[in-house]
Specification:
The protein contains 12 helices and 16 strands. The chain folds into 2 domains: 2-26 and 164-309 and 364-393, Rossmann fold, CATH 3.40.50; 58-163 and 311-352, Rossmann fold. By secondary structure, it is an alpha/beta fold. The radius of gyration is 21 Å and the shape is globular.
Length: 395
Amino acid sequence: MRARAWRLCVAAFACVAVLALAACGSSSDDDGSSTGAASGAGADSGSTSGSSDPSNKSIVVFTPATSNNYVAMWTAAAKDTLERAGYEPRFYENNFDQSEEDQQVQQVIASGDRPAGFIWWPSDNPAGIASVRRLSQIAPVVQTNNKVLPEAQRYVKAFGGVNDYADGVATGRLALRMRDAFRAAGLRFHSPEGNALIVTYVPGYQAGIDRVRGIEDATRDDPFNVVGTVVTRFTSEESYRDVSQALPGLKDRGIDFVIAVSEFPAIGAIKALRESGLTPGRDVGVVTGNCQTNFDLINSGAEYGTILQSPSIEGQTAAQVLAKVLENGGRTTGTDTEYTLPADPDTVPELPAELAYYNYMPLPAIEAGKSPAENKRIVAESRLWGQTADELCAR
């Protein structure tokens, strides 16, 4: 799958590989914009049964560091949801480092701790399979943020969180609408298709692989001329550094659009573009795959739009799925089944009585691209599950 991500780079330009990372994750071939359950096998997910004590209300959650805004909001929502359901969650944080996360798993196992269940957010999905196998021998495991790999399905009872492929599809479609809007406004592109720079996550981080695949598929019939791909880490500072290093090599070809898989890469890219003499929103269009801090860049017009991938809703979804798994003995409708929760503006939906294996949060787009006053109105009126966009994404 990694190879597909790099096919976005045109042959005339070598991808810029500046090691890094970012936050968000799972995948399926759904666009994530509507609700529905796929046909199921009507059987257990195939993961191991675990040996948790039913009277034990302890939950252990493994996540990246809450110094990342997205993870902090995810953690707060998961904690609140689990506590409301009567559980006592404990969190182990790693610095987006799978070896550190693996050590934490070993510590939990060695301590003799036997919680009712685990929520597992891998930092390196393939490298973390051995740890999730060990956890599954103790209690049911629900994975979040990175899709469950086929070889791990027997150890993971269910998934709850973001569908990264669908996020990529939604981002790609948003980028197509952005290009139409810029063309209608009279922007002269550097190529007939418009030159695009992709800003994504480190190789091996499943979210980036799946999102770029979704962007590629969404734009396949009307592609951009992708002149480069920058790989960056989780912070806007690192994205700024990495995009700044890439821009001189692209100066002669020109950039019309930036498609970023996440907000922090977009923030850094916008700063780098401005320092290179370009004005985002006027000279270069920018879209991003999720909101993460605030909507200042959309309000000002620097960003054309984003996907309302709320960390709060993802944390809530993961916790709801674990509670349902513990309630029904780990039974799902089969590992080939999926369900996307509805994008209801006012009501928090319930999971179906028969739990799908993949349970996805909704991913509505916020498309602005207007005047600052109109952009602010669009953001202010955007709601999901009874909360405003600012409440769901801003921190």
